[in-house]
Amino acid sequence: MFYIAHRLFAAHDRALAAHLAHHLAAKTGADAVFLPFCDTGEETLQAPVKGLRLFELDRRRLPTLTGMIAILHGPSLDDGVCMEIGYAAALGVPVIVMTTDFQTYSHHPNSPRWEFTDPLIETITRRVVRVPRLGTLPPADDTADRFATFASRNHHQTDEAVARSVDALLDAATGDRAVPNTAPARAGSVFFEPSPYTPVPEQVAEAVRTAGYDLRAARRFAAAGTAAAARTDWDEARHAETLIADVSGPEAPPGAAALIGAAAAQGRRIGVYLPHPVFTHAPGREPNWRNLMIQYAAGHHLSTPDDLTSWLHR
Description:
Elements (H helix, E strand, L loop, with lengths): L1 E4 L5 H18 L4 E2 L15 H12 L5 E5 L7 H12 L4 E5 L19 H6 L2 E4 L15 H28 L12 E8 L8 H9 L3 E4 L8 H14 E7 L7 H12 L3 E5 L18 H7 L1 E3 L2 H8 L2
Parallel strand pairs: 1-2, 1-3, 3-4, 4-5, 6-7, 6-8, 8-9, 9-10
Helix pairs in contact: 1-5, 2-9, 3-8, 6-10, 8-9
């Protein structure tokens, strides 16, 4: 089963994912491709707790995958997609990321650049297929509609990204699947993933230490060697018995989302710290305080340090 992970809150995002799924299915067969929203019938689905049901339908596929293509664009990465990337990567599933973003990212003007705002994403995926430029400009034609020409060049760019991503996925899927980490978690260990959008809440670290846990925290954003630090963060988080992720910000930060996915895949205890949630509402769905893939993978919403303390002592 091949999984298309994509942002699905606007028509153009869903159309792009469907375009990709169509081309992948042409080479693998339609039954081998799972496209969220389309294959869960989200718009017409009725369930007592619809968001939870959608999470269950998506998660049912994730442990069975042969490969995944994840669509990521721009500086604000979809947190549901990043959660799915982390889940698949923790199970050794090859993940190909498709992007047409023409930007790369760094924390300082002259420091090493990353494919995305968090170096963890490219660290844990098999390959990033980046097609950053418009399609070739057609021969000069004074009668041509410049807007239609511009649209055509974008379509060509997208087509190239889709074709290259499908080829990369099928190539990766024919190789040996990476062995998932089956080492037991370190007893009494907590990995804390702070949000890059807010100051580190010192009360969180203090609560973890006071509860008697061995605390490790993400270091990749402050490290000189970001790639090595990202790998260390990934390894330490996956060996932790408990993950605490600060998911403050406009969306759950991409690294936090990926680590939540990895922890969920491994059956680890997950708590998410979010003092000021913004609830989302969709027809027939219960209010969600974060992307439903984050909300239901984590399970424990901690809004104050006291909530965290109580949860740690359970």
